[in-house]
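User: Teach me something about this protein's shape.
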Amino acid sequence: MTSNRGARALRLVQEDAVPGSPYPKASVWLRVCARVVDVGVAWGLYVVCGAAGAVVALLFLLLADGMLQGQSVGKRIFGVKVMHLPTRSAARHRDSTLRNAPLALVVLLGMMPAPQGVVAAAAGFVVMGGVEAWRVLRDPLGWRLGDTWAQTQVVDGKVVAGATVAARTPVAHQRAPGRLMSAAKVRRGRSVRKLGREKPCASR
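Assistant: First, the predicted structure itself:
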């Protein structure tokens, strides 16, 4: 009976655990408001930039979350931030591009010639938007499909206040002094042992 209780408790711990992130789930309401602002900015760019408007709006939506240390314009206003979980650092442009790819796909569909473009964009928005919204609401960390691809999470900016973009590749020259010092110690040890062997010969 004791073993059964232990196994049952172990299963409960595994089910309740939320691996992969030290951050709590951000407010869904704040995330929605931030996204509305970003889409509004993209629409403004689309209108202002004329023939290149669609491309500019698309690039903005892809790169927005990497512009202000893990914050787009909307996320800066509403105080939420995108963090790259493996490095615990603010999202970069690559992370932003991966996590916003589903939304960019809808914009790409809308760039098709009318009226097919309008229909395709509307269908893409309903399907992709529904999947993403369902994931945000149901996932314990608020991960949507793009977050899974980029390994990112939207968090409350107060939780990670002061976090900056950390170096994600080891810097070789930072370890060089240690290697040089170790080599010097090895040479010093060899010279001491050599002197120790020469002294008995001299006494004879």
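Now, about its shape. The chain is about 60% helix and 5% strand. The chain has two domains: 22-156, 172-203. If you'd like, I can walk through any region in more detail.
User: That's plenty for now, thanks!
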